[in-house]
Amino acid sequence: MENKLTPEKLNLLKQVALNLRIDSVKATTESKSGHPTSCMAIADLVSVIFFKFLKYDIKNPKNPNNDRFILSIGHTIPIIYAAWKNLNVITEKELLDLRKFNSVLEGHPTPRFEYNEAATGSLGQGLAIGVGMALNAKHDKLDYKTFVMIGDGEAAEGSVWEAAELATHYKLDNLITILDCNRLGQSGESIHGHDVEKFERKFQAFGFKTFSIDGHNIQEIFDTLNSAYNIKNQPVAIIAKTFKGSGLQEIENKNGHHGKPFKQEELENIIKELESRFKLKYQNIKYTPELPNKTNINLEKEKIKISLNTDSNTNFFDLDQKIATRKAFGYALQALGNANKNIFVLDADVQNSTYTEIFVQKHPERFIQCFIAEQNMIGVSTGLESRGKIPFAATFGAFFTRAFDQIRMAGIGRNALRLCGSHCGVSIGEDGPSQMALEDIAMFRTIPNSIVLYPSDGVSAYKLTELMANYYDGVSYLRTSRPETINIYNKNEEFKIGGCKILRQSKNDKICIIAAGITLHESLKAYEELKKQNINVSVIDLYSIKPLDKNTIIDIAQKSENKILTVEDHYIQGGLGEALASELSNTNIVIEKLAVTKIPRSGTPAELLNFEEINAKTIVQKIIAICC
Hints:
The structure is a single chain. This protein starts with 6 loop residues before the first helix and ends with a helix. α7 (158-169) crosses α14, α11 crosses α17 and α18 packs across α22 (616-627). The chain has 22 helices and 19 strands. The chain has 3 domains: 7-278, Rossmann fold (3-Layer(aba) Sandwich); 314-486, Rossmann fold (3-Layer(aba) Sandwich); 501-627, Rossmann fold. The protein is of the alpha/beta class.
């Protein structure tokens, strides 16, 4: 970067900063909602970043080498929309449609506006997404910078510091964090107020190169960003002391104005006061950002195909061979990595339990160890996915619960994350309830456009993992089990999202058993015992829980005397049984459920399945009680 700010350029940046303040006030006043005073705090910072440092092809926001700007303090998005308006990306009319139903300019950033990098607004998540984007640049040898603007209030979130530690671990000198230290939160003073040194010491402790600046001094902002470009082998944090309501004397740096737009009758006087304060008149400007360097990176999506018949590990998938679905997932990842260079795998220090270590053996350069920081792992995955990568993130299913906020924001952001939760249900055995995923189906079912897949053997786990790699409409979740299970499908079996498999059926079935995972194997054992007692039942493998194959299930249930018994290794609330009950609510099919209803404990898998009454013995007893 050039190291001199000419008088002409300085005047331009001052003009932009005034325009950004006024445009933010106008837009929030028009919408009668929003956070104008928070926007005004960062006006000078945004002016320098967008109109001096950002290399960006404004005609192509998807350009792989564009600099990235992530607004973690999502409620200040009006000033970013104002920046795009001053860059002639949107019109003034479009800006003044802020927060209206048919506008893509929502109250917090979402990808409905294609220049937004990520869905933010649930505070504390932007830095992790930035880490993912910076890692992508390092891997692809691209020279773009990732700017992340965070707030002093959200810096109380632990997820911020998870991301900060990982940024240092990977020496992300292409990541620049700007902390808006404006002192005031929503209801009072933030944790450190205007003590910028405390924030600076925190980032230094995490290994960042830090700068403390006056966030309203454009020359100082420029000089600091210029210096930041020359830092090597460590990320940068700029702590900018700012004032909420900057430019309006009566409210500047005063509590009680958060999230309060100005009234229409106040607007004219506010604009006059801002023009007087900065000795400039609001006027249109002409500016086009410097274009990024050209790259041959292609972000186009392509169909990824893998084959069990030609896989080097094919012998593990022979019929009646035993393999854990978590291990089959690992083999599938390795095959996907062989087939496509955009497959990335992220781990939370459990690679030898989730078997992502199988991927690492062949593709270590595309493996990201996030350590025991699941929230950050999801954020990093989101950043990678937004830059065209196909990330698979895996941990124990139970531990995704702590990252639910990040997962739901990925849903809002329409990010195609591929998540695998292992060690599901009580069948993991002796480790006890803290390690057992018993809420995960319910959690992932709630995410918009999500899919929830639950394999019961190695073949289905392998092929469902392939389906996830090619699903781009939202978050996908694969639920894998710890114990080894027998392969019940041959290698040529085909699976589809929204499908199921009819494993057993006769002409005089009394009831249909629907299960997946461990309890499918228990259901097949129960089928054999019931057959000995001349009780015929049908059995369905509901490997796709969301979406599910409603039509096939209704057809088989109607042929099974309109009775269904669901069996699952998951709490009864929100699981497979309730998903099915919801879909079949307007039919006359009776649904009974067996699920985990008691807080589990340590024990063998067999003891726990019996304790929770989801084993073959209980299934037989339940069906006899229903049908005989």
